[in-house]
Design goal:
This protein is an alpha+beta fold. 64% of the residues lie in helices and 9% in strands. The protein contains nine helices and six strands, in the order H-H-E-H-H-E-E-H-H-E-H-E-E-H-H. The longest helix has 68 residues. The two termini are 66 Å apart.
Length: 449
């Protein structure tokens, strides 16, 4: 073993001074610490209990979706990956330290060099990237991180909109099941009246069987409605991250107000929508990656600085010799000049640019359709709630009373009751269509500040 002389220490200090490692090392250490302290997305059992409450409101559902939606977790992790990629892109190449030994002499007494056993060397190599590669790499990663951030923001709003849609589906199925349950109770009263009239000889056996057949159909519809309700609740439970269904849960009737004014479309700011900002930043990232691929044709330089230490030999005249060596090395583009990387970067740029242009065009086109659909659903719902449903309820009540008094026949009664069932089903469906279209329209015109 041998000891390095003070000259080696001075040489190392000189190298550290020439290559600015202190600030980079401190930044790297801080970033590493930040990465260790970073909270990785995932489900929290305290914030996301598996047991569903007895009553659910739309506000509670949306809050839980933001905390516990399995779909959002994927976007959150992708955003954290993009942040890590941006951190990686901003890092400078580390220098390489090399220690060497040569002229190793295991038997110094037999050597002409006397007591000299080993020569030593210390070397540092630093890669210097040219052609502005670090800047293009950093800008491409920064744009990709921003695209991922907007993607997460839009995903949050899209998931909330999807949860609203499923919530309204459950409300519709719940309302239909309640309406049909009420119809079943009404059927029981009608059946009792029909049986009493049959025993009194007021109606024939054929009329009684027609009533029983209509009641059986209504009961089957009620059973189908309960099955649809259970399926809708199961879908909502999956979206909210519950480990069980919501069979014992009742949803509050948080329908949107159908008499509100339709929001105006901010045409001049649609390009600032979160999903379109994603496409814009992806295009920008691809453009910077294209510049980076072009810069690959500028060869990088590796600078090497070496210190050689030749220790004292057997005589005073042949003392210790210290030498220095400076090396420069560049790659030779003999087999390729990164043609494949450049071609791939060019294709990806035009691909993302076309996706951006197509997305912006489709956004303007779909907004017109969504606005027209929302207005139509609003008009239909207003007409059903104010005209069709009240009239059908009055007709059914009058028909039931008239039939009990023997004023109308069984076919009129059955027709009135069918009209009421159809009106209630139509009202529930149109209310759901209006709520869904309003939710989708608000998502389409919401601008990210």
């Amino acid at each position: 073993m041998y000891k390095f002389s003070s000259t080696i220490c001075v040489f190392m200090a000189l190298l550290v001074g020439l290559i600015p490692l202190g600030e980079g090392f401190a930044q790297t250490s801080k970033k590493s610490l930040d990465m260790q302290m970073m909270t990785v997305g995932g489900s929290d059992l305290q914030q996301c209990p598996s047991d569903a409450p007895v009553n659910l409101h739309l506000t509670h559902v949306l809050q839980r979706a933001l905390r516990c939606s399995p779909e959002l977790m994927e976007f959150q992790l992708n955003y954290q990956i993009a942040q890590a990629d941006s951190m990686i892109a901003s890092q400078r190449p580390n220098p390489v330290l090399g220690l060497g030994a040569d002229s190793i002499n295991p038997t110094p007494g037999r050597s002409p060099q006397g007591t000299r056993q080993i020569d030593s060397s210390v070397r540092i190599d630093q890669l210097v990237e040219l052609g502005e590669k670090p800047r293009f790499r950093r800008e491409a990663a920064s744009a990709a991180e921003l695209a991922s951030q907007f993607s997460l923001k839009f995903a949050q709003k899209a998931v909330l909109s999807d949860v609203e849609h499923i919530y309204f589906d459950v409300l519709s199925a719940q309302q239909r099941a309640m309406d049909l349950a009420e119809m079943v109770q009404m059927n029981q009263r009608v059946l009792e009246v029909a049986q009493a009239r049959f025993k009194a000889g007021d109606i024939s056996d054929l009329e009684l069987k027609k009533i029983v057949l209509d009641i059986t159909r209504a009961n089957n519809e009620y059973q189908n409605a309960k099955t649809d309700l259970a399926k809708s609740k199961s879908n909502l439970a999956k979206m909210l991250g519950y480990n069980q269904t919501l069979n014992q849960t009742t949803l509050a009737r948080d329908w949107p107000n159908h008499e509100i004014s339709i929001p105006a479309i901010p045409w001049e700011r649609i390009s600032q929508r979160a999903d379109l900002r994603v496409l814009q930043n992806r295009t920008l990232s691809a453009e910077k990656s294209r510049y980076l691929a072009r810069a690959l044709r500028v060869p990088d330089v590796t600078v090497g600085l070496q210190y050689n230490h030749l220790p004292v030999t057997g005589s005073y005249e042949l003392g210790t010799v210290n030498t220095y060596m400076l090396n420069l090395s560049v790659p030779l583009f003999l087999r390729h000049s990164y043609e494949g990387e450049l071609r791939k970067a060019e294709i990806e740029y035009f691909k993302f640019r076309d996706e951006q242009l197509r997305g912006e065009k489709d956004a303007h086109t779909s907004l017109k359709y969504q606005e027209a659909e929302l207005v139509a659903n609003q008009e239909r719902l207003t007409r059903v709630l104010k005209e069709i449903l009240p009239t059908a309820s009055q007709v059914a009540a009058s028909a039931e009373f008239a039939y009990a008094k023997g004023a109308i026949g069984v076919l009129d009664l059955i027709d009135a009751r069918r009209s009421l069932r159809q009106a209630r089903t139509e009202a529930s469906q149109i209310r759901t269509d209006f709520a869904k279209s309003l939710s989708s329209f608000k998502l389409a015109i919401e601008i990210e500040e």
